[in-house]
Amino acid sequence: MRKSVWWKRWLDSAAIGTLAITVLSNALNVLQISGYLQQIILGAVFIIAVAPDKG
Question: What is the reported pTM?
Answer without folding.
Answer: 0.68
